[in-house]
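Deliverable D4.2, example record:
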Amino acid sequence: MTQTAQTIAARLDRLPMTRRLWRLVLLISLGAGFEFYDIFFTAYVAPGMVKAGLFTPQSLGPFGGLTDLLGKGPATFVFATFAGLFVGAILFGALADRLGRRRVFLGALAWYSITTCILAFQKTGFALDVWRFISGVGLGVQMVTISTFLSEIVPRQVRGRVFAVNQVISFSAVPVVAFLAWVLAPHRPLGLEGWRWVMLIGSAGALAVLAIRGLIPESPRWLARQGRIEEANAITTAMESAVAAEAGGVLPSIMPLSDERLTSGSFAEIWKAPYGKRVVVLSVFNFFQAIGFYGFAAWVPTLLVAQGVTVTTSLYWSFIIAIANPIGPLLGFFVADRIERKWSIVLAAISVAVFGLLFAAQRQPVPLIICGVAITLASNWMSFSFHNYQSEVFSTSIRARAVGFVYSWSRLSAACTGLMIGALLHAGGTGAVFALIAFAMAMVVLSIGLFGPPTRGKALEEICP
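Output generated by the structure prediction step:
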């Protein structure tokens, strides 16, 4: 890292977290909110699509032969979602290292709006799966870019709280989509099935976020690593001026930072020490965390139906459970920078396993809802912790590439999880599903607890010396 680029990073890290920086976090997080809306509407529109006969062998076309194994549930749709996310993350995640965080963030959001609009008008299960895959490619790029973007523009001492706020806003989309599905899915406003309206609303909302693109600057850290020092300096200076005005006119002194390791930005660089071990650990972690996270979140109404609840009632109960989604990271805001990130992940994984097994044993409304809320809180605590964690442990020039690679294994896992849960639910009920989730959480505890590096309170450049 050149001395000038190092100084840019040090200037960013000394800034107090005033309204100017929180506003920037909010704008980026609004974009993430529509990504979460899209990922999670799968759970809430699935019963309506099943009821419409879109997952029969005839409607699925080439995928029709899978219904004997998976039943007539939404397993192929879930698979298509996460297969697209996997391709987007592993093949195109590095675009943000080449083209910039801002450009890729906005481009992926536009991709989501257009492809989801097309998705909403498909008439067969096969066409739905194809367009769901295409939409997922853009989402895969977006999720990688957001984590990379946020970690680079906020001071070290508040990264945990920033990611907590990011996920409070992002997960607020989940009760919104659950509410819309509960209200719209049983009906046909203007002659169009309610679940199609749920998709269209998300698509239209994302266009509004694109309208605020002028308020989002490029990452100065990324610009500096590209040799675009004047642009990096101009953006940093503007941020300093705005923050200083809000903080009383005086900024803290600039503290020297350790050199960040120089890298070429190539794929081979992510395998060199100290990153190679981190890539392996986080790849294993991501593969298994997705089984617990999406094994429940993407199947809530369907799992409730399997417990003997009617489709309409399951959507109502799912909405109640979904309200808890932003509460997990909201609670985490108060302790995110006080607890080492890796131990937050470990404790959250243990909680998911315990409450998941309890959920499988319940049949009455109150215990089911309580266990569902507890799983949701723990899952989302784990989510904001690991999104922060995996974006901290790689250097600026390979951050998006490395995060895209390790995160892609969660996408692949979630794609396979959709098929596995469809088969397990069909063969062994919810008990078999949550046994799988408990095993996955045990693997999360082992991988991060034993091999994950500490990061709390450190500058990005110190974590990657």
